[in-house]
Amino acid sequence: MGTTTLLGCCSFSWRCNQKIKPSDGHGNWISRARACCSDENISDDGLWKRRTALVCGVSLISSAVLGYSGGAGQGLAAVKQGLLAGRVPGLSEPDEQGWRTYHRPDEKSGGHGVGWSPIIPYSFSVPPQWEEVPVSIADLGGTEIDLRFANSKQGRLFVIVAPVLRFADNLGDDAKLELIGPPDKVISAFGPEVIGENVEGKVLSMDVSQHSGRTYYQFELEPPHVIITATAAGNRLYLFSVTANGLQWKRNYKDLKKIADSFRVV
């Protein structure tokens, strides 16, 4: 990008006359590009002097990166706006055991900017050394994955937030998990989105609980080793999946179960 602008500067005069920065004491605007293209900065053989080319290139690249159209303030605002659409920090400070609580930031967009209405926040807790990792459209769950966390030695988790309209058109804007279906129906319908295959014969346990008036279903499957917690809020179904390989599962089951039990829509 910077190279194209640099070459274009001396090829097209209109680019060299862009007003970027006032450089004299009389309020006159002189662009960096124009200064670079002046005759005094060209050597006898018609080529740019090395220092001039270097300084000009750095100036143009800096302008492009900062989004120079109205000053550094606008450029920084554009950078901030770009951050809001992706990964926004949401972890608390560690407690006495080193566990941290993630609370979905209000500024965070949908998993891939699909244009959904605001998502009701959720929270969960993770042990030390668990960190957020990028969401990929190639992941199981596709564009409906809102968040992923992982620890290379313990396991990984992800959150699927799916519109309930995918499953029924009569649930309204305040869906209840009970209206979507009983536990066996929910895991049969949505389990494949989490593990990528039919769940028949893989469900080891099913549990139903209530927290702050909201119903949660929790399922433990094997193989693969995974705990899925499901609930509904607003017009969305939430699937919270905690998984690990066989060795990680054996060594860290207690912590993985604690992570799964901590999930709440708040």
UniProtKB/TrEMBL annotation:
- One of the GO biological process terms: photosynthesis
What InterPro entries does the record tag this protein with? Answer: Mog1/PsbP_a/b/a-sand (IPR016123), PsbP_C (IPR002683)
Q: Boundaries of each PsbP C-terminal domain copy?
A: 122-265
Domain of life, per UniProt, equals Eukaryota
| MF (Gene Ontology) | calcium ion binding
- Entry GO terms, CC: extrinsic component of membrane; photosystem II oxygen evolving complex
Name of the molecule in the record? Photosystem II reaction center PsbP family protein
State the organism of origin: Pelargonium fulgidum
The gene name reads: PPD4
